[in-house]
Amino acid sequence: MFNKKLENLKNYEAGKPIELVVREYGIDAKDVIKLASNENPFGTSVLVEQALKNASNKAHLYPDDSYFELKEALAAKFNVTPKNLIIGQGSDQIIEFIAHAVLNETNAILTAGVTFAMYDIYAKHAGASVIKTPSASHNLSQMLELYKANKDKIAAIFLCLPNNPLGECLDASEVYDFMREISPKTLIVIDGAYNDFAKFKDAKKAIDPSDLIRNFKNAIFLATFSKSYGLGGMRVGYGIADESIINELGKLRPPFNITTLSLKAATIALSDAEFVDKTLKNNFEQMTRYENFAKDHGIEFLPSYTNFIVFKFDTQNSSQISQELLKKGIIVRDMQGYGLNAIRITIGTATQNDKLFEKLDEILK
């Protein structure tokens, strides 16, 4: 009955919801802290909240399917044209478009050893194989070696910059040097879901989409409103690429693939730079506290250019630690599914982080 391609596929495991902790442990929802899905701890902009209230009486109407206002705002922000843009229900929907547009049973994708799971899943949906580097993080020497050995097979390369779920990030200059070695017939996907965080921390990590697509006609830059803009629940992402790529991906986009309210929220969110600056500043101020906590407790951590940090353990079991934190009303992401004895923690507000440090300290002792 079902497509044979599904036989060896696992479901993507999303972060545990607050409702699950309330049901299983009887903890009041207001006492649960979710630090598992890299959501914005400040919620979203008050400008967005007001705009959603004002637009609530339009929920019965389909959105403007051209997404004119949002594309115009994004085009101005990134110095591109609206024809260089495609809007998705989260940036992962655009990854799905890419998979259907370029992949099949005869070709493959190339990724880092540990990276965003949906690259693997969507590639296998299309029947393509997945080639990963031996290194968990992005090792461009290994990538180039694998690419040259499989040049006729690799149809797309996915670079997650910064990398989810590890947090590391390459310098833009070394990424461009790598891309110059790749055939223009191979699509290069730069997943920049967290790139504004990396840019805030270190300007050398910033990928300029306008510069990228001007120099590489085979590249697409992906981004999302879910992180620094605090619109995870609205599900809005976008891709920036040469018009030829956008035209092909557009053939796969269903009509009205984001909602009327999502469209309004994303458009207004772009206008509130103060909210984004507050988010980025808090993130790296609080991340320093996580790094100090790890050092004080002898925990290895991965330097992060995102809104999360990974703690790796030697003797303690990450699944047990995650479970004990759940019982105390704190949700983090166990990394055992990635083959790592580690937890990934979203950087929260100062108050949320105080509680995490207190409870994790109790567990570790």
UniProtKB/TrEMBL annotation:
Domain Aminotransferase class I/classII large intervals: 30-360
Catalytic activity: L-histidinol phosphate + 2-oxoglutarate = 3-(imidazol-4-yl)-2-oxopropyl phosphate + L-glutamate
Residues found modified as N6-(pyridoxal phosphate)lysine: K227
Pathway: Amino-acid biosynthesis; L-histidine biosynthesis; L-histidine from 5-phospho-alpha-D-ribose 1-diphosphate: step 7/9
EC number: 2.6.1.9
Keywords, in A-Z order: Amino-acid biosynthesis, Aminotransferase, Histidine biosynthesis, Pyridoxal phosphate, Transferase
Coiled-coil region(s): none
Record-linked InterPro entries: Aminotrans_II_pyridoxalP_BS (IPR001917), Aminotransferase_I/II_large (IPR004839), HisP_aminotrans (IPR005861), HistidinolP_aminotransfase (IPR050106), PyrdxlP-dep_Trfase (IPR015424), PyrdxlP-dep_Trfase_major (IPR015421), PyrdxlP-dep_Trfase_small (IPR015422)
Entry-linked CDD domains: AAT_like
Gene Ontology MF terms in the entry: histidinol-phosphate transaminase activity; pyridoxal phosphate binding
Chaperone in keyword set: no
A GO BP annotation: L-histidine biosynthetic process
Cofactor section: pyridoxal 5'-phosphate
Quaternary context: Homodimer.
Family: Belongs to the class-II pyridoxal-phosphate-dependent aminotransferase family. Histidinol-phosphate aminotransferase subfamily.
PANTHER family from the UniProt entry: HISTIDINOL-PHOSPHATE AMINOTRANSFERASE, HISTIDINOL-PHOSPHATE AMINOTRANSFERASE 2
HAMAP family: HisC_aminotrans_2
Protein name: Histidinol-phosphate aminotransferase
Species the sequence originates in: Campylobacter mucosalis CCUG 21559
Lineage, opening ranks: Bacteria, Pseudomonadati, Campylobacterota, Epsilonproteobacteria, Campylobacterales
Gene of this entry: hisC
